[in-house]
């Protein structure tokens, strides 16, 4: 299975049209068709459903697209790493990060590094911790910032002192907005919107046996779209303080949970990881910062 052919495959999957894909790849349509037919023969599965007007992926094609994206991301990252070995003026660093105001010290460190190495390029991947861990394990990320306890068998880590406090995001015209804090009884029978990660990590600790009685109407990874759901009265969102603007001219407000629920924050990286020169410079700065 050649890297070049995988790129052909992904282009056809994206364009859903052989002619447009061939034009994009600067190859003839017969050449492209031949390469894809050979790929199907090599795998032993039909990858495309062809019609007069479009091409769609089969279930096997969808699986290959996911694997091909991971493979090519790794190939591209590896090439960038080798190209940056002699280019300490800059390079690429890949970072996964949960949404939190607690990443401010990390961003400040990145700014210091950028001042020293103006050709530095930062690639951020924002998602839930599980998705970030998966990309870190595959070698697609250099570092990750997570908001849950760390698997010490897999990762090295530094703890960020900032902790994220949980609370309820709601409309200001809601009766619960009159409260200073939100207790478990306040949440019973409310349509709740929770992060997928929190339903495994934080919520069972805070709700205890009451967790099974919650009325959860939606789950999320990132909270901006969730704030729109709250604004449009789809539900009440459990999340971190400070991620959504709730100032004077906002129609939303945030009330912390009582008893207090907080999530820890860590910078992590794989054990025995070999860094590019620029990523090693970042690690040195991180460790220097935390030693102070």
Question: Any key phrases for this structure?
Answer:
single chain, 292 residues, alpha/beta, nine-stranded mixed beta sheet, two-stranded antiparallel ribbon, 10 helices
Describe the overall structure.
With 292 residues, the protein is an alpha/beta fold. 40% of the residues lie in helices and 25% in strands. It has helices at residues 3-15, 18-25, 29-43, 59-83, 104-116, 129-137, 184-187, 202-207, 224-231, 277-291, and strands spanning 48-50, 55-57, 90-97, 119-126, 143-146, 155-171, 191-195, 215-220, 236-240, 252-256, 262-270. Helix 5 (104-116) packs across helix 10 (277-291). The chain is globular. The N and C termini lie far apart (50 Å).
**Proportion in helices:** 25-40%
Provide the succession of SSEs.
HHHEEHEHEHEEHEHEHEEEH
Given the C-alpha coordinates, what overall shape results?
globular
Quaternary organization: single chain
Strand content: 25-35%
Largest sheet data: 9 strands, mixed
Summing up helix and strand content along with how strands pair, one would put the structural category as alpha/beta
Question: Any chance you could write out the topology, listing elements then pairs?
Answer:
Blueprint: H1 3-15, H2 18-25, H3 29-43, E1 48-50, E2 55-57, H4 59-83, E3 90-97, H5 104-116, E4 119-126, H6 129-137, E5 143-146, E6 155-171, H7 184-187, E7 191-195, H8 202-207, E8 215-220, H9 224-231, E9 236-240, E10 252-256, E11 262-270, H10 277-291
Parallel strand pairs: 3-4, 3-5, 7-8, 7-9
Antiparallel strand pairs: 1-2, 5-11, 6-9, 6-10, 6-11
Helix pairs in contact: 1-2, 1-4, 5-10
